[in-house]
Each structure stands twice: as structure tokens, then as C-alpha cells.
Amino acid sequence: MKLSSRLQAIADFVPQNSIVGDIGTDHGYIPAYLIEKGISKKVIAVDISQNSLEKAIDFIKLRNLDKYIDIRLGDGLEVIKPFEIDTVIIAGMGGLLIRDILDKDWDKRDSITHFILQPNIASEALRKYLYDNNFEIIDEKLVMEDRKFYEIIYAKKGKDHIEDKIYYEIGEKLIVNGDPLLKDFINHKIKTINSILEELEYKTTEKSKSRYDDLMEKRKRLKAVLKKVESN
């Protein structure tokens, strides 16, 4: 089976012979792919939506994979037992929600080895959570799909630190790896900041002024990263 660019990039981070929990599985495409390609021995597909799970059940049965994929209705990690999986995928939701899923069931979180996370928004808050809670970001990748950038983070438990706050916003591994989409990604962020600065320029409230100053500083840091990337 063929996955979309985003789902393929997520699946590519899954270790061989893993037992995977796919949180927010939706149609069950990643679990089916991991079993059919012999990457995973077993997958637990979890979704909070009964409607999504029905679609996943139909898809998985159609491909005769129900012996290898356990489908569960539930919220986050609540239907996963400690040490039941070694790899978790949490993709297609906000970074704050991913953070909350990990933090809510920390005993289960700490029994997992591999974390493959794809936040749609608030990736900086998710990275900060990972650094603050003894995670090491092993790798990252950018994907462009339907004219939208997606950030995929692969992390494990371990000590790590950052030298510059801008690496919450732009994953340091993207820079180290020379991700081919990185320049466009940074330019997109700078363009977004410029639009917000134009809106804030003539507002006089303290909150607006503070926001303006913060964005000016962030843009300065992003431009410094862009210059570093372009010089490599």
C-alpha cells in the first residue's frame, strides 16, 4: 500500500520489529502499512472517535490484518498498559494536546522507548516539554503536503539541552541534517511573523507592544538561523 508523504515520513521512523501504539489512528493506514511491510510485530490502533475506529476496522479487515492489529476506543494512552508497546506514534493533532497525552499517563509514557510525534501546531511547546522532561530528540524531518509544512519528531528518553531558544521553534536536528525543506520552512515562518507585525504596528496596548517586541526578537533569531543554513 502507498501512504501519503506525511504518513510515510512518520512510518519511516518506526524501528524494525517494534510493537507500536498508534494514537489517533484515524483510518488505520499506518498500522496496516507497518504490518504489511514487516516493520512491526503488532500494532495497537487507538482513537477517541468511534466513527474513525469503524473506518479503521473496515480497512484492516479488508486487508486481513485483524490478527496483528488491536483496535481500541480511548483517549490517548489510557487504553495502553505499561510496557505493552515500545513505540508510540502520536500524529495529526496539536502540540499542546500531544504534550498533555504524554504528561497525563507519565507511568505509561516512561515505559515506552521510541516516540514519533507529529504536531500540526505548537511544535515549539512540544519540543520544550520534551527537553524539560528528560527526552532526547534523536531526529526530525519536514514534509510538505497540500501546501502545508509538517514537522515530524523522533525522540527517546534521555538527557538533552539546547543552546538557543530558537531551537524550540526550529528543531536543531533539521539544521544538523540540512533538511531540504528547511529554508522554505524558515522563510514561511518569517513571512507569517511579518504579517502579524503589520497588524500590531499601530496598536498601543501594553499587550500588543509586548507581542510586537517578542515577534521582532523571534524574527531576528529566525533570520540568524536562515543565514546559518544558507552558509552551509
Structure overview:
The chain is an alpha/beta fold. The protein is built from 10 helices and 7 strands. It folds into 2 domains: 5-167, 3-Layer(aba) Sandwich (Rossmann fold), CATH 3.40.50.150; 182-231. A 7-stranded mixed beta sheet has the order 3-2-1-4-5-7-6, sandwiched between helices. The protein is elongated. The model has no long low-confidence stretch (mean pLDDT 95).
Given this structure, which CATH class of the largest domain is correct?
Alpha Beta
β-strand percent reads 15-25%
CATH architecture of the largest domain: 3-Layer(aba) Sandwich
Radius of gyration: 19 Å
**Which spans of ≥5 residues are poorly predicted at pLDDT below 50?**
none
CATH topology of the largest domain: Rossmann fold
Tell me the overall shape.
elongated
Q: Summarize the amount of helix as a percent range.
A: 40-55%
* SSE pattern, N- to C-terminal: HEHEHEEHHEHEEHHHH
Distance between the termini: 37 Å
Strand order of the largest sheet: 3-2-1-4-5-7-6
Q: Structural class, from secondary structure content?
A: alpha/beta
Number of domains: 2
Return the average pLDDT rounded to an integer: 95
Biggest pleated sheet: 7 strands, mixed
Total DSSP E strands: 7
How many DSSP H or I helices? Answer: 10
Q: Can you tell me the CATH superfamily of the largest domain?
A: Vaccinia Virus protein VP39
